[in-house]
Amino acid sequence: MNIDMIDAAAGRLAGKARKTPLLSSPFLDEIAGRRVLVKSECLQHTGSFKFRGGWAAVSLLDPDTRAKGVIAFSSGNHAQGVAYAAQQHGVPSVIIMPKDAPQLKIDNTRALGAEVVLYDRETEDRREIGAKMSEERGLTLIKPFDDPVVIAGQGTIGLEIAEQAGEMGIEEADVLVPCGGGGMTSGIALALEARAPKMTVRPCEPEGFDDAKRSLLSGKIEYNAHTTGSICDAIMTPSVGDITFPILQRLCGAGIVVSDGECLNAMAQAFLRLKIVIEPGGAAALAAALSHASELTSETVIVVASGGNVDPDMYVRALQGLSV
Amino acid sequence: MNIDMIDAAAGRLAGKARKTPLLSSPFLDEIAGRRVLVKSECLQHTGSFKFRGGWAAVSLLDPDTRAKGVIAFSSGNHAQGVAYAAQQHGVPSVIIMPKDAPQLKIDNTRALGAEVVLYDRETEDRREIGAKMSEERGLTLIKPFDDPVVIAGQGTIGLEIAEQAGEMGIEEADVLVPCGGGGMTSGIALALEARAPKMTVRPCEPEGFDDAKRSLLSGKIEYNAHTTGSICDAIMTPSVGDITFPILQRLCGAGIVVSDGECLNAMAQAFLRLKIVIEPGGAAALAAALSHASELTSETVIVVASGGNVDPDMYVRALQGLSV
């Protein structure tokens, strides 16, 4: 994995992915006690950064292989990203999703042309199901994070952060990234290593799913005890990957762990101050910026708001915490 | 008023206002039966397009005049735009707001450094109050819409629409704009006359506040019977202005009138499909695109989502209409 792969992915994504804005508000700066810049990937196609990795992977397949279709397993955002990338390429997609994924993500994935197969997180192994269907139909598996091409696609966020912050004269920053399997986190870290080497990526995780933080401390891949139990469905991954972990280990600063309540508050602040909709997992990094100031060191914090696919009920819960 | 004034405003706004994204979703295209592009001015500084006009006006004052401070009257978005523009210039601002403006807008205006004076919409004349305070303190009145410099500032949205749509190969479109006093509508119409002459601006108004539509039909400035009674607080203006009306008359297509329910639905669709927060008045144009397809003629409709400063309670009301 190197910067050339990320630049190549950026070339394939040009005119296809949105260059999302780097938003800010004096009100958020005041809460965080420093300058806060929010890379708003919730405004990406399909409502999350996952479209980047999906497009990067589907666009690189040779045409005959691509024509047979692709398959993915995902709690929802990768699902939509791959489904939309496949639809835009005119090829079929099969998406394997947990039964307890937000209904909105399941509905959207179907509406983007995918065949959706539901499984039980506690009793079934999605990797097994995916491998079996891939073989039967000649589908190409698009992994959610532990794949160099997908990592390169997500890494294009890092290229844009370096460019957009650079235009503002910012070279040093803590860059907070919601971390599940580490695809986006490692991709951004690789991009910034090359283009903004004074920035430090910090993985952000929900309580009970802090495997990345623990893995960085212990020096080996650690696992989470549970697979459910946070509202941050997008980043409740069992562990980081074999490809992502060494990159995280080489390039990232310490992980930051946030509570569900801190994520709900960050969602509400994004509503009030930035006018963007973010989902619980997508708010983990903003939650870290707003509620864990003592763990940050730079004068500027850049936060990735990674997705906005949240059911209305959960969003109402976030807004009810506001006292306006 | 001409395009040179808008270009000059764009020069002063460069690096100060955000170039807001033109968002889209296949789900919205399906509802509208045509391509829908959403100019997301809710992502502008202070959460609405009004920052453009505020900055355009404050930045053009001579330094001695500016140092004495500025004054504005507004239901909230112009208030915040002027307050923030003044704060960024390091000069004082006084903002005269109706007592029934959303609490969020009042609080934000104060937090942006303004002195807020509240008045009663039904019994007091805000113009009178404004003129008196301007005189007493040597403040310069920044009008909300009927001022060539403010119109030019809002018109920079039109320059960006022409450029962003042009990059997508789009020359013809209905351009739907929420219309109160007509500052933004006339500014965009002037910009498009010069830069995208095949586009037609259509003012969008709430039921009971359709003075622009009626004025275009009768050929003279018509007034609304009431000053309250819609959830679209941002565009409940008594009439269009003496400067804005001739521009609207020369350049705009027929007005479109939307119901409060259609605006709430548009807010919910923007939440679901675009991940942007829009307020009721800011949703009037999107409501027209989604619910008044039969009144549109072009294959592409460009919608201005003009602001996102909505109280959480009203937003929850919009989301409760969703069946997900």
TrEMBL record, chains A, B:
This is Pyridoxal-phosphate dependent enzyme. Keywords: Lyase, Magnesium, Pyridoxal phosphate. InterPro entries: Ser/Thr_deHydtase_PyrdxlP-BS, TrpB-like_PALP, TrpB-like_PALP_sf. One of its GO terms (molecular function) is serine racemase activity. Its cofactor is Mg(2+); Mn(2+); Ca(2+); pyridoxal 5'-phosphate. It holds the Pfam family PALP. Residues 17-307 form the Tryptophan synthase beta chain-like PALP domain. One of its GO terms (biological process) is D-serine biosynthetic process. PROSITE patterns: DEHYDRATASE_SER_THR. It comes from the Bacteria. Belongs to the serine/threonine dehydratase family. The keyword Magnesium applies.
